[in-house]
Specification:
It is a single chain. The chain has three domains: about 50 residues, no CATH class; about 90 residues, ACT domain (Alpha-Beta Plaits, 2-Layer Sandwich), CATH 3.30.70; about 25 residues. Helices cover about 45% and strands about 15% of the residues. The protein has six helices and five strands; from the N terminus they run αααβαββαββα. Strands 2-3-1-4-5 form a five-stranded antiparallel sheet, with helices on one face. A hairpin with a 2-residue loop joins β4 and β5. α1 packs across α2. The longest helix is centred in the C-terminal third of the chain and has 27 residues.
């Protein structure tokens, strides 16, 4: 910091402290000239300033803060036939994490670039989200107000380079997904088909024996 700026900041702290205590009530270190303050004196001054600060009202705390009261949910307005709508309402004011995978992967730098554009698109739609690249082709979006996560999901699945979105244990394939069906689900379907085929063959053998 520039010396002049540093001096001004310390001066403001000292003046603020001076208003809260008379000279007789001040400790010896607080009676020094600003130029004579040591690092330890400055730390004491900052500690005192923080102690005297008025706490932020609970309802003015940022979204996601553990001490911020949760909004009341009117259960009569919940449409139980719309699970996504219910989740969106119940997650309002709570932190929600979303995982998004990029298709046609080339390298981590491109993933960073593409998902940064998505984040800007969300901001332009008044959706605040923090972004973290967790794998070369996968990112996490964190929403302090989880109620916006489903709006973000609708936006992301429409992006050309979005392979899939995972939100609250649900997977949503992108409109331009390369893998139209999840491999695990496909394996399960194949196994079910094989079991049905075997069951039919067993039944035929039993009829012949009779």
């Amino acid at each position: 910091m520039h010396p002049l700026g540093y001096f001004v900041c310390v001066s403001l702290l000292v003046v603020g402290s001076a208003k809260k205590a008379s000279d007789g009530d001040k400790p010896d270190w607080a009676k020094k000239r600003i130029q004579d303050y040591s690092d330890a004196d400055l730390e004491r001054l900052l500690d005192q300033w923080e102690e005297d600060e008025e706490p932020i009202p609970a309802d003015e705390l940022p979204d996601g803060h553990p001490d911020k009261p949760q909004p009341q949910i009117d259960m009569s307005k919940l449409d139980m036939s719309n699970p996504e709508g219910v989740m969106q309402m119940t997650k309002k004011g709570k932190t929600v994490m979303m995982f998004v995978r990029v298709n046609h992967f080339t390298d981590r730098a491109e993933t960073e670039e593409i998902t940064s554009l998505w984040q800007t698109g969300l901001y332009n739609n008044h959706i605040q989200a923090e972004r973290f690249v967790i794998e070369d082709n996968r990112v996490m979006f964190m929403f302090r107000d989880g109620g916006y996560a489903w709006e973000a999901k609708d936006f992301l699945v429409e992006q050309e380079r979005c392979e899939e979105v995972q939100l609250e244990q649900q997977t949503y394939k992108g409109n331009f997904a390369v893998e139209k069906e999840e491999p695990k689900k496909k394996e399960k379907k194949d196994k079910k088909k094989k079991k049905k085929t075997k069951a039919k063959g067993t039944a035929t053998v039993e009829k012949v024996e009779l």
